[in-house]
C-alpha cells in the first residue's frame, strides 16, 4: 500500500523555484538540503502532517553524479521545459514495504539508498533517470526513521486534491489567503 508523500516542483535554480511556489501559494518554501549522490538540492514546504512540496534543482556547487539525475533533470527536454518556467513535474508515494510495493509495479526500477543529515530513505529509481512510466507512475519511497514533514514549519498550506492523468498533474490547495491551484 502506498500514499502520497510529496509533490515535486523542478526549477533551474532554487531561488527561481521558491519564487514560483510563493507566487502561487503565498509562502516561500524553507531551506532543505543537498543530495550529494544526485548533485541536487531542495527547498521544502509543509502540506500538513506527513506531506510536503519539494522544490528541486541541480546544485551548481555539487559534483555531477555517476548516474543520471532523478526526475529527468539531465535531459534536454526537461532543461528546455525548466528554461520556460519551474513546474509541478512529479509526485512521490511512500510505503512501509518498498520491495512489496514493487512486486506488481509496472516500471523497471532499482532500489537506491540515500541519506542527508538525520534522514534516511530508499527510493525506486529508473536507471536512466526518467520518471517511471514516462511520468504516469509515482516514484516510490520508503523512509527509514524521521520524515522531513515533521520538521517543517506549518504555514497553513494543505493539499486538498491531487490529480494525475498520465504525466499531466494538477493540485489544489487551501492556503491562508484562500484556495489555489497549480496546473
Describe the structure in your own words.
The protein is mainly beta and 183 residues long. The chain has one domain: 2,3-Dihydroxybiphenyl 1,2-Dioxygenase, domain 1 (Roll). Strands 2-3-4-1-5-8-7-6 form an eight-stranded mixed β-sheet. The chain has a three-stranded antiparallel β-sheet with strand order 9-10-11, with no helix packed on it. The protein has helices at residues 14-25, 76-84, 98-101, and strands at residues 3-10, 30-35, 40-46, 52-58, 87-94, 110-116, 119-125, 139-143, 158-165, 168-175, 178-182. The longest helix is centred in the N-terminal third of the chain and has 12 residues, at 14-25. The protein contains three helices and eleven strands; from the N terminus they run βαβββαβαββββββ. The model has no long low-confidence stretch (mean pLDDT 96).
Nutshell version of this structure?
This protein has helices at residues 14-25, 76-84, 98-101, and strands at residues 3-10, 30-35, 40-46, 52-58, 87-94, 110-116, 119-125, 139-143, 158-165, 168-175, 178-182.
H-E string = EHEEEHEHEEEEEE
Q: Which spans have pLDDT < 50 for at least 5 consecutive residues?
A: none
Distance N terminus to C terminus? 27 Å
The overall pLDDT average reads 96
Shape: globular
CATH class: Alpha Beta
Per CATH, the superfamily is: 2,3-Dihydroxybiphenyl 1,2-Dioxygenase, domain 1
Classify the helix fraction into a percent range: 10-25%
How would you write the strand order of the largest sheet?
2-3-4-1-5-8-7-6
Amino acid at each position: 500500500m502506498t500514499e502520497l508523500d510529496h509533490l515535486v516542483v523542478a526549477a533551474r535554480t532554487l531561488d527561481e523555484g521558491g519564487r514560483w511556489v510563493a507566487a502561487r501559494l503565498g509562502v516561500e518554501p524553507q531551506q532543505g538540503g543537498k543530495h550529494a549522490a544526485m548533485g541536487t538540492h531542495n527547498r521544502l514546504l509543509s502540506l500538513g502532517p506527513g506531506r510536503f512540496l519539494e522544490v528541486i534543482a541541480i546544485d551548481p556547487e555539487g559534483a555531477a553524479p555517476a548516474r543520471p539525475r532523478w526526475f529527468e533533470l539531465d535531459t534536454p527536454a526537461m532543461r528546455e521545459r525548466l528554461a520556460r518556467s519551474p513546474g509541478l513535474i512529479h509526485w512521490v508515494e511512500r510505503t512501509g514495504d518498498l520491495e512489496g510495493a514493487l512486486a506488481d509495479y509496472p516500471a523497471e526500477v532499482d532500489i537506491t539508498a540515500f541519506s542527508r543529515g538525520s534522514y534516511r530513505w530508499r527510493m525506486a529509481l529508473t536507471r536512466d533517470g526518467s520518471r517511471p512510466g514516462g511520468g504516469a507512475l509515482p516514484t516510490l519511497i520508503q523512509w527509514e526513521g524521521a520524515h522531513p514533514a515533521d520538521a517543517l514549519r506549518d504555514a497553513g498550506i494543505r493539499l486538498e486534491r491531487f490529480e494525475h492523468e498520465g504525466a499531466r498533474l494538477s493540485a489544489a490547495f487551501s492556503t491562508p489567503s484562500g484556495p489555489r491551484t497549480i496546473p
